[in-house]
């Protein structure tokens, strides 16, 4: 694309200027000679445009296949441990070879289109030049033009044909630039989020009163309801838990609060006002999110914890947040402490450690609304207990949404919503839901209770065998 604007676009103007200046000079010598000299120009332009369309399509296919190959290579490098763990090296190598071969075939076809155009255009324009020389020579012999005019014409004809020859090449080469331009425009034309637009411009923090009224949501590229006719009310400081199978709409529901997406039907009220009347930036400053898949930037641990805080923070505050998230001792064990660079996507830390750093980041942000998206899924039981205690303290006087798969994580919630296929099939407290025999909540509770009991029994038996072995 850079070459298109710096060379090819300028080249078109230069070629046009040279062509018309020389053509005007030939017309001045002899009008008939001038028209004879450009008889093949329309053909060359038509052929150039025909090749332009074909080369554009071929280059699009080549670029698309190159993207497929790059994705394959990136996935193999990123997931190299998975590939090795499942002994799939041969499969991945064959897959790469297949994608690479397709790229080679498409690239070969692209070069073939170019190689066909150049000889064809040179033959036609060479014939035009030869025909012009012969025709002018006969006109000289017949006395229609003077010898001096013939000599001048031969020089002008070369400068008339040469720019057209280059113009055809520029048109065909420009197809690559146009494809790249279109790919960039597909990104640039995407609508930008207006972070500051809103009828309400509050100055202080929200209270945290939230109400869903018959809310439904469909993704812009879908036709099926992800959330359908959901209604509930949360008072400031209350906690609400969302329980359901994978794909039931739990994460999609909480993503409506920071307006990552806007609901399609119904109404969501925050402190009595329509959620869409609040600026997105303000909402996201009031909401703290601990995501299911923690993400850390390739920066120091300190910078990751401070990310999004938006105020001056002391080292004591950073360490207090880390202690509350049960990650301070881990950080202190590193040689550089809080200045340790975590690497791309936090590769320096384990999954549980990354998640605890994101929890510390949310604790330091001190939001009025919390969203905990299965935030203890990647930690061990002992760490989970410590984090849960920290979160219990953090949740005081904050409206909290808890997404979890373990009944133990949602038992203390003021309201539990059980979702299935985007709809609320049960709601109430743990004590109310567990008494509903045959319900989804009760089935999940029984299964997890049975697993916990079996695990506890196995641990006790293992300890008993170890004790008897020691006595023996």
Give the SSE order as H and E letters. HHHHHHEEEHEEHEHHHHEHEHEEHH
How does the helix and strand content classify structurally?
alpha/beta
Give the mean pLDDT.
81
CATH superfamily of the largest domain: P-loop containing nucleotide triphosphate hydrolases
Fold topology:
Elements: H1 2-29, H2 31-36, H3 41-78, H4 80-85, H5 89-141, H6 147-188, E1 210-217, E2 227-234, E3 239-244, H7 250-254, E4 265-270, E5 273-274, H8 280-286, E6 287-290, H9 301-306, H10 315-324, H11 328-332, H12 351-365, E7 369-373, H13 381-394, E8 399-403, H14 407-410, E9 415-420, E10 423-428, H15 430-433, H16 440-471
Parallel strand pairs: 3-8, 3-9, 6-7, 7-8
Antiparallel strand pairs: 1-2, 1-4, 4-5, 9-10
Helix pairs in contact: 1-6, 3-5, 3-6, 5-6, 10-12
Question: Can you characterise this structure?
Answer:
There is one protein chain. The chain is α/β, with parallel strands linked by helices. It folds into 3 domains: 2-188, ABC transporter type 1, transmembrane domain (ABC transporter transmembrane region fold); 210-427, P-loop containing nucleotide triphosphate hydrolases (Rossmann fold), CATH 3.40.50; 434-472. Helix content is 58%, strand content 12%. The strands form 2 sheets. Strands 6-7-8-3-9-10 form a 6-stranded mixed β-sheet. It has a 4-stranded antiparallel β-sheet with strand order 2-1-4-5, with no helix packed on it. Strand 7 (369-373), helix 13 and strand 8 form a beta-alpha-beta unit. Helix 3 (41-78) packs antiparallel against helix 5 (89-141). The longest helix is centred in the first third of the chain and has 53 residues, at 89-141. It is elongated and about 120 Å long. The N and C termini lie far apart (80 Å).
């Amino acid at each position: 694309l850079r070459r298109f604007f710096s060379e090819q676009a300028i080249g078109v103007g230069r070629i046009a200027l040279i062509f018309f200046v020389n053509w005007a000079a030939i017309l001045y010598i002899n009008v008939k000679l001038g028209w004879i000299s450009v008889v093949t120009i329309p053909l060359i332009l038509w052929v150039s445009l025909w090749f332009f369309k074909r080369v554009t399509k071929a280059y699009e296919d080549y670029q698309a296949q190159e993207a497929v190959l790059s994705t394959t290579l990136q996935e193999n490098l990123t997931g190299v441990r998975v590939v090795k763990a499942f002994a799939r090296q041969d499969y991945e190598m064959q897959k790469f070879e297949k994608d690479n071969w397709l790229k080679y075939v498409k690239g070969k076809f692209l070069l073939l289109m170019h190689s066909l155009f150049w000889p064809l255009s040179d033959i036609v324009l060479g014939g035009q030049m030869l025909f012009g020389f012969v025709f002018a020579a006969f006109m000289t012999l017949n006395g229609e033009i003077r010898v001096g005019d013939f000599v001048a014409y031969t020089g002008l004809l070369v400068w008339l044909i040469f720019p057209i020859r280059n113009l055809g090449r520029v048109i065909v080469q420009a197809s690559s630039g146009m494809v790249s331009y279109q790919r960039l425009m597909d990104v640039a034309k995407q609508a930008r989020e207006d972070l500051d637009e809103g009828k309400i411009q509050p100055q202080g923090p929200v209270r945290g009163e939230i109400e869903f009224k018959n809310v439904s949501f469909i993704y812009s590229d879908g036709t099926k309801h992800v959330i359908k006719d959901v209604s509930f009310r949360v008072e400031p400081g209350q906690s609400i838990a969302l329980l359901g199978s994978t794909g039931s709409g739990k994460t999609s529901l909480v993503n409506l609060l920071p307006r990552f997406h806007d609901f399609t039907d119904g109404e969501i009220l925050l402190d009595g006002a329509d959620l869409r009347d609040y600026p997105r930036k303000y909402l996201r400053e009031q909401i703290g999110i601990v995501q299911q898949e923690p993400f850390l930037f390739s920066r120091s641990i300190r910078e990751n914890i401070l990310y999004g805080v938006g105020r001056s923070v002391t080292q004591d505050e950073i360490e207090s947040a880390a202690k509350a998230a049960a990650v301070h001792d881990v950080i202190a064990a590193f040689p550089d402490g809080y200045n340790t660079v975590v690497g791309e996507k936090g590769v320096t830390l384990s999954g549980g450690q990354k998640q605890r750093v994101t929890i510390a980041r949310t604790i330091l942000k001190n939001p009025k609304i919390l969203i905990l998206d299965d935030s203890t899924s990647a930690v061990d039981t002992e760490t989970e207990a410590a984090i849960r205690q920290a979160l219990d303290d953090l949740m005081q006087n904050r409206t909290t949404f808890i997404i979890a798969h373990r009944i133990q994580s949602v038992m203390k919630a003021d309201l539990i919503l059980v979702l299935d296929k985007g709809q609320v099939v049960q709601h109430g407290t743990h004590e109310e839901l567990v008494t509903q025999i045959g319900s989804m909540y009760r089935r999940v509770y029984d299964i997890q209770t049975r697993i916990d009991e079996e695990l506890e029994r196995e641990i006790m038996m293992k300890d008993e065998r170890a004790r008897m072995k020691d006595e023996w």
